[in-house]
UniProtKB/TrEMBL annotation:
GO terms for molecular function: nucleic acid binding. Coiled coil: none annotated. It comes from the Eukaryota. Gene3D superfamilies: Ribonuclease H-like superfamily/Ribonuclease H (3.30.420.10). This is DUF4817 domain-containing protein. Residues 3-56 form the DUF4817 domain. InterPro entries: DUF4817, RNaseH_sf.
């Protein structure tokens, strides 16, 4: 590091000598009685900084140093206002409305506003009788497999996904922004209009998805498999 006096001397000499880094370095060595001086790249960089900022001091003014953050009080207030109007907004939508990057929006929500995305709770209680039936069924299947009286290849695993037609949102992609957990539960009717996608898989292959509006039952699953 060089002093302000040395930096000013380099800028003035570089300008006076119609820029010549070599002549500037030699003049600097003679003036301050030092064996070495700045290389050409450093001298040009210092002069360019002076032209851009009007200063040779390393005080990170102008465009020198890291860029200013966009997490300003105005942006924080803007994001806060949008969340207060609709806590169910996604980060993508908030960023689109504010014109900020998603990473900056996420930083404002987490660090500045101390908010976290809480998911909707949609509990479904399992009766004790049903839990006992599942346990007994699993033990029975294990016993049959151990006694070689049941082929594992005959086991089909099925699953279905329901797409509701009345605007109900799946809890997996539904969030609520807030500084505290609202413990929000949203009631819904027992029978919603929906379309069900059903698929089955086993060691022998996959049955492509079937789309239906009727309720999935064991009889209907057997019919499809047959």
């Amino acid at each position: 590091m060089y002093s302000i006096e040395q930096s000013v001397f380099l800028v003035l000499e570089y300008h006076r000598l119609e820029p010549s880094p070599t002549a500037t370095r030699r003049s600097f060595q003679k003036r301050f009685n030092v064996p070495n001086g700045h290389d050409a790249k450093t001298i040009r960089k210092l002069f360019a900084k002076f032209e851009r900022t009007g200063s040779v001091d390393d005080n990170r003014v102008g465009n020198v140093g890291p860029k200013q953050t966009v997490v300003t009080p105005e942006n924080v207030a803007q994001v806060s206002g949008i969340v207060q109007q609709n806590p169910r907004n996604t980060v993508r939508r908030i960023a689109s409305e504010t014109g900020l990057k998603r990473s900056i929006t996420q930083k404002i929500l987490r660090n500045s506003l101390r908010m976290f995305p809480y998911k909707i709770q949609s509990p479904q209680a399992i009766p004790i009788k049903a839990a006992r039936q599942r346990f007994d069924f699993a033990n029975e299947i294990l016993t049959m497999i151990d006694n070689e009286g049941f082929g594992v290849g005959c086991i089909w695993f099925t699953d279905e996904a329901h797409f509701h037609l009345n605007g109900f949102v799946n809890k997996q992609n539904w969030i609520f922004w807030g500084s505290e957990n609202p413990h929000l539960c949203e009631g819904r009717p027992l029978h919603l209009p929906k379309v069900t996608a059903w698929v089955a898989v086993c060691s022998r292959g996959i049955i492509d998805p079937f789309f239906m509006r009727e309720t999935i039952s064991s009889e209907r699953c057997i019919t499809i498999l047959e």
